[in-house]
Design brief:
Elements lengths: L1 E3 L4 E3 L3 E5 L2 H6 L11 E5 L5 E2 L7 E6 L5 E8 L4 E2 L7 E6 L2 H4 L7 E3 L1
Parallel strand pairs: 3-4
Antiparallel strand pairs: 1-2, 1-10, 4-9, 5-8, 6-7, 6-9
InterPro entries: DUF192, Saro_0823-like_sf
Protein name: DUF192 domain-containing protein
Pfam families: DUF192
């Protein structure tokens, strides 16, 4: 994954899996017991998520159709819901702490 903004271009050493079928998108990380570390999931289409049956927090980045960040959520805890995000068409679920570590912000572009 690569983060591109006006002041940086940064390669992030996280493997991203694509979840694009209905069942993969629906299940996401549910029921997984151990937190994700050097991996994340790209969910498409997706403009909202739930954390039901999750056992660890995650960071979430919502992207528009141009893969530009429209919303970031840091340390989203289990059993919470993120209602539809305006202009979002995809979401990337990442290990908790990723957004701060790599300074991901609104208007950055994400290249997979």
């Amino acid at each position: 994954m690569e983060i591109i903004s006006s002041d940086k271009r940064l390669e992030v050493p996280i493997s991203i899996l694509r979840y694009q079928t209905f069942w993969k998108r629906f299940r996401g990380l549910m029921f997984r017991l151990t937190p994700i570390k050097n991996e994340g999931i790209f969910i498409s289409p997706c403009n909202s998520i739930h954390m039901f049956f999750m056992f660890f927090p995650i960071d979430v980045v919502f992207l528009d159709e141009h893969h530009q960040v429209v919303k970031t959520i840091v340390h989203l805890k289990p059993w919470h819901v993120v209602w539809p995000v305006k202009h979002a068409v995809t979401a990337i679920e990442l290990p908790s702490g990723t957004i701060h570590k790599y300074q991901i912000k609104i208007h950055d572009k994400i290249k997979l």
